[in-house]
Design goal:
about 210 residues; mainly alpha; 9 helices; elongated
Length: about 210
């Protein structure tokens, strides 16, 4: 049992390096198997394909961060809509920081998702989070209009660019290997920068 665990760990370590260096498309399953010192038959006892191997490396961590995001969204949506303007900033900032805390502890996994996942179901990971954030933003617009706010509705492409910029910025900290302490400060300041801009837009026509 221990030998099997060691073999699987070696496959994972080699695969991570190969995918980070060459990307999913460029990495060779044959090369991964060779460097891990196992036979192709032994590999297929663990995984059916290169795709399944990549998914095994990133799935649990990628889904965990998604659940952090959706957890804060669900908590926020459960509040009375009249309380949304007062609490949007708190929930957004706490969510971004918790996401970063986890991502910073699993940098190689998220580098795989961000830099090496083209050709897998993970290649649009950040985009999918951005689209979910756009959806909650629209719900927020609708709710605050009911209580007297008249938010300026952004051009859809500009809205996408702004929201994408904040989440892309968070993940850039992993790509550039910023220290956890500096990264956390960057996330806080990045969020405050965007929140001030959103506040200006949403409150300009109260």
């Amino acid at each position: 049992m221990l030998m099997a665990e060691n073999t699987l760990e070696k496959i994972h370590d080699i695969a991570t390096r190969e995918f980070l260096e060459k990307g999913f498309r460029g990495a060779s399953l044959r090369e991964i198997v060779k460097k891990a010192g196992v036979t192709t038959g032994a590999f297929y006892g663990y995984y059916k394909s290169k795709e399944e191997l990549f998914d095994a490396l990133v799935s649990s961590h990628g889904e965990y961060v998604r659940q952090i995001f959706y957890g804060y969204v669900d908590e926020f949506l459960a509040l009375p809509q009249s309380d949304w303007p007062a609490h949007m900033d708190d929930y957004s900032k706490k969510g971004m920081l918790e996401m970063y805390e986890y991502v910073s502890e699993h940098k190689d996994v998220f580098r795989l998702i961000l830099k090496a996942s083209e050709g897998t179901k993970w290649e649009n990971y950040v985009h999918e989070i951005v689209e979910a954030e756009i959806d909650i933003t629209h719900k927020f617009y609708e709710a605050i209009q009911k209580i007297g706010y008249k938010p300026y509705i952004l051009n859809p492409m500009l809205e996408h660019m702004i929201i994408s910029g904040e989440f892309t910025g968070l993940f850039e900290l992993v790509i550039h290997d910023i220290s956890k302490e500096d990264g956390r400060r960057c996330v806080e300041e990045l969020h405050d920068f965007y929140e001030a801009a959103w506040g200006s837009v949403l409150r300009m026509n109260v």
